[in-house]
Amino acid sequence: MKRTIMDYYPLTITKLEDGEFREIGIGLAYLSDADREHLIADENYPYILTYEWEDELVSEEQFNANVAEIYDMEQSVYPEEFVPYDEFLKGLKKEKLEEANY
Q: Which residues form the domain of 21?
């Protein structure tokens, strides 16, 4: 069985403040070139990702701990439908105006 290699996972955590998204955490998980070559040569080679947080190499555990410090995964909600960024902001502004009874 041939395995598909997905090997680049950027992560940007943002916070909405005053109608603007501000980056509060940036990480990256990826398959190194060396591990990619091993996987191509041997499909049973373990899939091992390299982790970076704020441009520094970290362990998987530290990466996950950094995410957990600023993002509560238990409160996370997966969207039913993705929309472009500008439409998302319009929806937030409309909802805020409706809550204020404008």
A: 8-76
Is residue 34 a part of any domain in this protein?
yes
What tens digit of pLDDT does each residue of 55-68 get?
A: 999 999 999 999 99
Domain count of the fold of the chain: 1
Half-sphere exposure at residue 25, Cβ-oriented, CA atoms within 13 angstroms: 16
User: What is the rounded CA–CA span in Å between residue 16 and residue 95?
Assistant: 14
Taking the whole predicted model, whether its pTM rises above 0.90 is answered as: no
Asked whether residue 83 is assigned to any structural domain, the reply reads no
Radius of gyration of the chain (CA): 19
Q: Read off the pLDDT of residues 73-92 as tens digits, 9 standing for 90 and up.
A: 888 888 888 888 788 778 87
